[in-house]
Amino acid sequence: CHDIGVILGDAMMAACAGDDGYAALDLSASLESPSVIYERFVADVSIGHSAAFTWDGEVIIFGHEPGGGVAANCQASNPDSDKSFFFFDSRTGADLGTWVLPRPQSATENCTLHNLNVVPIRGGNYVLVHGSYQSGTSVVDFTDPANPVELAYSDPPAIDPLDLGGAWSSYWYNNFIYETNITEGLNVFRYSG
Asked: Residue 128: which residues within 8 A CB-CB, separation 6 or more?
């Protein structure tokens, strides 16, 4: 596992991202020795990176890190799979949809969809916040995982020549978005849409 997402309460699951996909784990019998529910191969993925759950545990969000985060993998010429988050039914692993970064980045911008979390909005809405190196920070509504929509973003100027920089991770917490930016430090945003 590169990264593990955990949800307790009624769901009692974990998702372990690594290699070419993720594994879903059942925590209901034991937190110390969970059982594997299923393993999910994700086409065109070689470095599984992130796994997270919706607030109700119904959907797993999976991301990977082509190029290890130091390559310019969000250009128009890159395959969509290099610049995507994937949504799966948490209990079955069924494919629910994919979100592709809608803003191509330049050849001087290291970019891969990186660290994320899900905003705990009740009422059936699913919104994630992520940091993706030089493509910046983004807010995505995936209430309909087959048709996700970007609500807002911050896309900083490119660092030229190509150098490691940008939003390492961006997380929502208590009505603010906290971005840890490799070259700038901490950036704080408030989304009020």
From this structure: 52, 61, 85, 116, 117, 118, 119, 139, 140, 142
Task: Identify whether the C-beta of residue 159 lies closer than 8 Å to the C-beta of residue 109.
Answer: yes
What is d(CA 68, CA 85) in angstroms, rounded to the nearest whole number? Answer: 16
Helix (H) or strand (E) holding 137: strand 137-141
Please list, in sequence order, all residues whose beta carbon lies within 8 angstroms of the beta carbon of residue 185, skipping any fewer than 6 positions away: none
- The pLDDT averaged over each successive group of 10 residues in the chain (193 residues) is 94 95 96 96 92 96 91 96 97 98 96 93 90 96 98 93 92 96 96 81
Q: Are 87 and 61 in contact (CB under 8 A)?
A: yes
* C-alpha 151 chain-centroid distance: 15
Task: Please give the Cα distance from 111 to 54 (Å, whole number).
Answer: 24
